[in-house]
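Can anyone check this?
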Amino acid sequence: MKMLRHKSFFICSLLICSFNLRAQNTLTDWQAFSENNEPVTLTEQTYKEKKCVKLDGKKETIVINKNKNYRDFRIEFDIAAKVMAGVGFHVKNEQNYQFLYFRPGYGGTQEAIQYIPIYNGGLSWVLYHYPIHEAKTDIMAMEWFHAAIEVRNKIMRVFVNNKKEADMTLTLLDTDTQNGNILLRTMFGEAYFANVSIQEIPESLTDWSISEQLPRDRTYDYTEVKKNRSWTKIDQKNDEMVNLKRYFEYPNGTVFAKRTIASETDKPQLLYFDFTGKLQIFLNGKEVFNYAKYKLDRLNNYENCIVLDMKKGENELTFIIEGDAFVFGKGFNSMGRLQHQNWGFVAALAEKTR
């Protein structure tokens, strides 16, 4: 069943930041460099009926936006390459970043896609290989194919030619930075890039303070949150879902969850979220969302979105949430006791840019 949104709240869609590389030589925030790290001008071309930019691997090796940092994101583009070309991300500098690249000449083999971390300039393809760091896909040298690379919470997925199932899925290795610039790079031969777009994925909120369980099937308000004196800090960084069952031996109640968000100015921000059961959301003590019916759907990170009017300084975001015991009356029988089976939420914060 789909959630019925409260009409008085502004529900918004994920903002997509996209750009066309064909026009990048007119922008000040992107720059091309040669293999000797010398600034150069991008070459614009039409290759096999697509408007694109060409990197020749010598005079033009990378193109980078040094004024924009990304942590979690999805980048899509069309690419035709001779030897190896791809995307560098979480770029600290030209010698340190994460690198995902394609070998079109090895299309159909396990070496068609490769991921490596670049440490101090080293292209360590011998150290990182199949079956974890390489993957098979059907691509051909100097023929256009579409690629999408999604990085979320240290998990990277790579999709070729609009497949629904990822060609590669892995956990990124640790580097000095968890975010950074994005660059496009080719090596040992020319590559063409077209129709490039970047979608920034909002930052997941995993660190919260939660109350003890309170009796469910009753309504709570913010005054009861303020009266609560017992809080436990939680933060499961590798699980963007706040799964409340992990914190209670017998999960069968309602919980308050709160966190502080710092803002440098008065400004609106976007809160993306989804949940099971019932949910109330408060910002600085003011109710901004209330779903008092019962919801039991598979969670979607960006199912719902509201605008939060942040004030300069610290802002308190509070959730009051009950799980799914209602579906089974007094709860689902878990080996002799009645309790929640699904009880939790996912939340992410993003800048409101328009």
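Reply from J.R.: I decoded it. Helices lie at 222-227.
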